[in-house]
Each structure stands twice: as C-alpha cells, then as structure tokens.
Amino acid sequence: MPDPGSRPLFRPALADVAPYVPGRPIEDVQRETGVGQVVKLGSNEGPYPPFPAACEAIAAAAATQRLYPDPGAWALRDALSAATGVGADGILVGNGVDSLIKLLCLATLDPGDALVMGWPSFLSWRQGAGIQGATWRPVELRADGGYDLDALAGAVGDDTKLAVVVSPNNPTGQAVTPAALEAFLDRLPDHVLPVLDEAYFEYLPPGAHDGAALVAAGRRLVVMRTFSKAYGLAGLRVGYMMAPPDVVEALGRVRNAFDVNAVAQAAALASLADAPHELPHRIAEVISERARVDVALRGLGYAPLPSAANFVFVRMASPDAAGALNDYLTRQGIIIRPTGPFGAPDGIRITVGAPHENDALLAALRAYSG
C-alpha cells in the first residue's frame, strides 16, 4: 500500500498554472515612487464613477447588510432578461467575469479535454483550462490583432469542449465581424460549446456582434459580459453570463451560493435601469478620447492597433523596449499594462482615461527619450 505521506498535497496540474498578475494599484506605485498623483491606465476600468442612481442604491443597500444577499440574484436576472431578450433561466450573475470563466471551466473540463482560443488574449481562459488539468490550445491572432476564426475552427478536435472568442480582444482591441462569427459557429461540431467573451461589448460600434441576440435566437452559445468597465462598477465585481438553460443549471451546481453581494446586486440593478440616460454619452466620450490618444501616439512614432474597446495596444520593438517604457511611465506616476502575461511580451496596453489622465500620459510620452 502506498505511503500516504508520499502523495502530493496539491494537484500536479497546478504546477503549470501561472497566477493571474493584476494591474498595479495606485497605492503600490505611490509607495514605490513617492509620486502623490498617480494616473491608473493599466486595468481597463471606466474613467467615470458609478452612475448617480447606482451610488444611491449602494447607500440604500448599506443598511441591510446583516442579511445574506439573494443567492439567485433574481431581480438583476429579470432586469437583464428584459434588457437582452434572453430568458432569466439562461442568465447567471457572478462575481465578475473571472469567476464565471472559472465556473465554466470547472463544470466542463476534465484532464484530456481541450479549450481552444486565440492568443495573445485574456489570460483567465488559459488559467481556467490549466486549473482543470485540461489542454489549452492557442491559435495565433491575425496581424491586426483580431481572432482568426478560420484557424480557430481548424484547431478544434475530438478532444475540444470549449472554443473561446474574446471580442473585442483583450489586450489587442480588435473585434470579429458578425458574419465571421456566425460562420464560425456554424462550423463547430455539436460536442464543442462556443464562448463569446464580450467584456467590452458596450464599446463596440453600431452593427457589431451581439451575443445576447444570438443566445435569445436559440444559438447554443455562452456569452460573458460585465458591469466593471462601462458601468464603472469594477470595485463591486458583477459579471453575467448568458447561455442555454442547461449550461446555467450545470454551473449552479458548482458555484458559491452567495457569490455576488447585495450591494453589488443593487448597484448593478440601478445601473441597468439608468443605462439609457447615462451610458451613451459616456461611451461617446471614451471613443472620442480613444481616437485622440491614437492620433497622438501615431504622431509620436508609435503604431497602436485599431481598437473597438476602451484601450489601445502598442507593439514595441522588443520586450526590453516595452519594459523600459513601462518602467519610465511608472516613475512618472502613470500605470499602464505590460502584456507579457497575455502572450505579448513586446506589447503595452493603455486604458483610455479621462481627458486629464490622457493628457498626463501623452505629456510623459513626449518627454520620453527611450
């Protein structure tokens, strides 16, 4: 009989899983540099505070926090159903998109299964597969930073369970076209569950893909969205998934019962109600600033990729050049995101901030001699 003491405590698959390294917080950079006024353009938060209605809901919910939250988040799911056309039984609210990614991988992937996706792309999908001991199969992006859906479909095999499309892609910013997406979905065999990660959905231009409409029309598809970006609720962690009801039911077997707190639910519900009033002008301002930053970067000799999100991606001459620019900007009190963990060691990702934040970034870049 084997000695129980010889068995490893931790699952061997975890040895190959790199921890997610988040963007640096403001306080960390302040401690390191001594700079009092730090501009954070590294984590793709929205540049504006929560909607006024959300702030009121947060304050009102504070008095009820002795109680557990609604484990099903039914009020929010009903509101999301009304907004998207997806039945409430096809919606699952989670503690940010990251938690929903892990739940989907937990519910679907075993060792020997595979997840295919474009790369460079969002690291959490790679992590989710690795945690389960499944195969992670990356497919190179197109030159413009978008997903190559033909190549992705070609990478699907008998072992594939999840086929992930991140659009707009993080960190490169490109979106797939609706026609290409539907053609890709048509090519997938029945044993593959396609996933559309739409974390930056609100920034897409008119006529772009709409994963919710596809799910509502009966497509067997999982769609991920979040309140962390355009809605300004990154600190409260609210994401949601739209999918066939059997997928939602399966994830309900593995999720934590109270994974979305009551304050977050109240804020998201109020945000959704106030979105027609608040969201359009906020999105328009971000898109306008994104264009301004793009033009200024090009004037300084950089070549940002086209973006349909709230950030721009710049490929530098080398990983060393990307690291040097990141170090310089950090010393100036400006946080950007090196994209090595996303699979692009020679790249940097810059969140589009408020106008004064973008001004500070561009001023620092004009003074850079690297």
Protein described:
With 370 residues, this protein is of the alpha/beta class. It folds into 2 domains: 122 residues, Aspartate Aminotransferase, domain 1 (Alpha-Beta Complex); 223 residues, Type I PLP-dependent aspartate aminotransferase-like (Major domain) (Aspartate Aminotransferase, domain 2). The protein is built from 12 helices and 12 strands. Helix 2 runs antiparallel to helix 10, helix 3 packs across helix 10 and helix 4 runs parallel beside helix 5. The N and C termini lie far apart (63 Å). The mean pLDDT is 95.
> What pattern of helices and strands is seen along the backbone?
HEHHEHEHEHEHEHEEHHEHEEEH
- The order of strands across the largest sheet is 2-8-7-6-5-3-4
Number of spatially distinct domains: 2
**Extended strand count:** 12
How many distinct helices? 12
The CATH homologous superfamily of the largest domain is termed Type I PLP-dependent aspartate aminotransferase-like (Major domain)
Secondary structure class reads alpha/beta
Mean pLDDT: 95
Fraction in helix? 25-40%
Major sheet: size, sense and barrel closure? 7 strands, mixed
**Gross geometry:** globular
How far apart, in Å, are the first and last alpha carbons? 63 Å
CATH architecture of the largest domain: 3-Layer(aba) Sandwich
| Beta-strand residue fraction | 5-15%
Gyration radius over CA = 21 Å
Name of the CATH class of the largest domain:
Alpha Beta
CATH fold-level name of the largest domain? Aspartate Aminotransferase, domain 2
